[in-house]
Amino acid sequence: MIHILKLGGGAGVDHAAVLENLAVRIQSGERWLLVHGTSDAANRLAEQVGYPAQTLTTPGGHTSRYTDARTIEIYSAAAGSVNQQLTAQLAANGVNVVGLAGPNVIHARRKTAIRAIRDGRQVIVRDDYSGTITGINTDLLHTLLDAGMTPVVAPLAMGEEYERLNVDGDLVAANIARELHADTLIILSNVPGLLRDVNEPQSLIPQFELHDLEHYETYAAGRMKKKLLAAQQANAARVILADSRIKRPIDMALAGGGTHIIASTLTLNSSPSGRGTSETVFAPLLHEGEGVGG
Amino acid sequence: MIHILKLGGGAGVDHAAVLENLAVRIQSGERWLLVHGTSDAANRLAEQVGYPAQTLTTPGGHTSRYTDARTIEIYSAAAGSVNQQLTAQLAANGVNVVGLAGPNVIHARRKTAIRAIRDGRQVIVRDDYSGTITGINTDLLHTLLDAGMTPVVAPLAMGEEYERLNVDGDLVAANIARELHADTLIILSNVPGLLRDVNEPQSLIPQFELHDLEHYETYAAGRMKKKLLAAQQANAARVILADSRIKRPIDMALAGGGTHIIASTLTLNSSPSGRGTSETVFAPLLHEGEGVGG
Prior knowledge:
Two copies of one chain form a homodimer. Chain A has nine helices and 16 strands.
């Protein structure tokens, strides 16, 4: 049974508490894989080299990092550096860890034409080096996990022309969770979970089933939309969106903290290899024949 | 039988020809591990962030990168980026490759007091993040090699306090060669090999035996001293110092190009595990009992 942890790359994410907690769980015999973000580090390096980060805004209001040829260099170097730091910190906590900023873990297709709004006008951006994830190097990940090692994966993919591509960390974690038939995906960031009112932490939605995702999407704004998309793509027994800024954030998430998105038993049974099914902890009440949205 | 290739990080090193050549050899069934340098990329990134590279000069005239806290950040990011680029290029040539900029492949001890000359006076530098290699994560490397993968290793080590340390790429390659009982170590850079006269490419020394190293050290200046130290540490059947700026540089090196430093049969037989011994291609004429210098 494999668990995937995504640790956000935003400012204010407390790595130390997360990594200590992760190390304790790994040492107790659990198998984990860590995926990290890199946004804050990429922004800082971009600032240092005098080429500040820019944002693309789609006509639908989605925003993403504008990753031109120079930015992908900056982004990649920052991703590598964050990967090294997390690898070293996990090692310091006694974990047999392998840093993978490859970019040979994730395969992606470059987005060659992105619709965006610039100066109030719609344009097509053709020089962006971001990608849509198309595959995961599961051979490598299984080889390392089977040898008792904990992979740490950066959000950097290889394109079809072997170019480096910026890919979303939450979706990397989700794709790895799906391809490794992970039981649990925990996405930690600097928010408590999905909130009915983004300004009111007390409005946290504690749990819902994956087939109700469309309903709950109405509460998501900004980065949270991507996390819900990740929950949909992960195909895990449970996806937990939780807060990294607390003590023992993984334990707290597993004990019911944050927002739990629970898969139906049906979905899990239809998993191609059937792996993970028998070990499912949660068995949400579902009527047979009931489908799962998306 | 494992072969180690060190590809220099200096300006003017032709990666494309080397990587194509390496890919062909791996696809023919040979097992290789690639170690790369990062000096030119680190210098360029340092320039870009407005914190240009500085040099330490020892009283003995050795020079090295002055790696203070800010420089190790720059150096690490650059090492990660070079690692990604080489990994992508090898993948583009059809190799099942794994980029390792960890820093969990190499363990080192930080040099906490370096004697250096500054403004004509001898000083002790205590804020340097460079290290002396103390160990190699052979478990990880064997796991990957046994799975048919080609590791690409950056010259970045983890210190005893889990800090990132700048380590010499030639010595990384040598230590890996020794710990994996490699048959051959090829060190490619932008020089033809060891020259009797550094300004005269025709003065190339084609071959000598490792026990004669002290004699040949008198011809080495600058970076070449480090390459000879690497040859000494590698304990391989042959170490080849050769030119990367030619067509099929690996084939040319193996066919006799560059400077070949040949171990005595005696040394190989005294290898603790005995691995690599039976497959030794070269059996230089040596009188029994003849020792090996250093």
